[in-house]
Backbone:
């Protein structure tokens, strides 16, 4: 009798184990997507699910007009970034937000909510809103089968975020303060400390050159960087700054030095860059 009971218990335990650990792996109806995009001085982390059109009418039926939408499927779409930004010119603090939307025929309301723990839009409360903006709808010529969120028009200080599904697209601008932050770092790390770090000197000179600031100061910094640790890319920057200052012969001879260093380092890209610079001079 005891043996029979033990066998029954073992069989029951086996069934429980099978129920606990056995599952069928199947494709997701709305596959999840994670995108990390460097924008200016931050990385924006986007987490969303991508429902498909599947021969359905999307906006106005599957996604009703005038109602809160999770902007995707499953959990709400979330955006996370670690510095303050502006969305269509309006401030939004660093943090993580659920991105809800209210689609309409001609425009959408984009909502950044502090509550990122809801399932779908159930329990949404406008009191949790950090920011709301209104954006126009763009009608697409081609159908977007799977809902898609992407970044475009990337610059040193911002980007465009685009939401597209079916034949509808909306978007908004993301911008951030870059110059003030970078100039503050240059002052603190280089100017105030009078640093002779070759890397810092190169970075500061490169920023001044790209932003068309004081080119004489940029030349001073890159010259010190080259003297401390000459690399083909630091010498190339010096050549470009000399060219921008109108000192053509010095720029050509400096580019020739950079080209030789690039050849020795096995970098054909910088060989070509220097050749093009010389040709333009």
Residues:
């Amino acid at each position: 009798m005891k043996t029979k009971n033990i066998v029954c218990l073992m069989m029951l335990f086996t069934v429980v184990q099978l129920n606990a650990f056995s599952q069928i792996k199947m494709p997701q109806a709305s596959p999840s997507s994670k995108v990390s995009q460097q924008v200016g001085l931050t990385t924006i982390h986007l987490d969303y699910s991508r429902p498909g059109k599947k021969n359905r009418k999307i906006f106005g039926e599957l996604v009703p007009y005038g109602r809160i939408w999770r902007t995707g499927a499953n959990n709400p779409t979330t955006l996370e970034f670690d510095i303050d930004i502006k969305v269509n010119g309006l401030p939004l603090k660093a943090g993580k937000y659920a991105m809800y939307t209210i689609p309409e025929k001609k425009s959408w309301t984009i909502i950044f909510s502090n509550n990122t723990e809801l399932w779908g839009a159930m329990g949404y409360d406008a009191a949790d809103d950090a920011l709301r903006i209104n954006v126009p709808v763009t009608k697409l010529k081609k159908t977007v089968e799977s809902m898609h969120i992407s970044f475009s028009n990337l610059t040193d200080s911002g980007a465009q975020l685009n939401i597209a599904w079916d034949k509808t697209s909306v978007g908004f601008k993301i911008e951030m303060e870059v110059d003030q932050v970078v100039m503050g770092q240059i002052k603190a790390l280089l100017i105030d400390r009078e640093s002779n770090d070759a890397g810092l000197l190169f970075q500061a000179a490169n920023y001044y050159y790209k932003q068309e600031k004081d080119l004489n100061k940029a030349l001073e910094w890159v010259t010190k960087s080259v003297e401390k640790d000459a690399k083909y890319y630091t010498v190339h920057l010096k050549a470009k700054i000399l060219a921008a200052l109108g000192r053509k012969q010095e720029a050509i001879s400096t580019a020739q030095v950079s080209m030789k260093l690039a050849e020795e380092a096995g970098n054909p890209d910088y060989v070509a860059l220097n050749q093009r610079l010389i040709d333009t001079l």
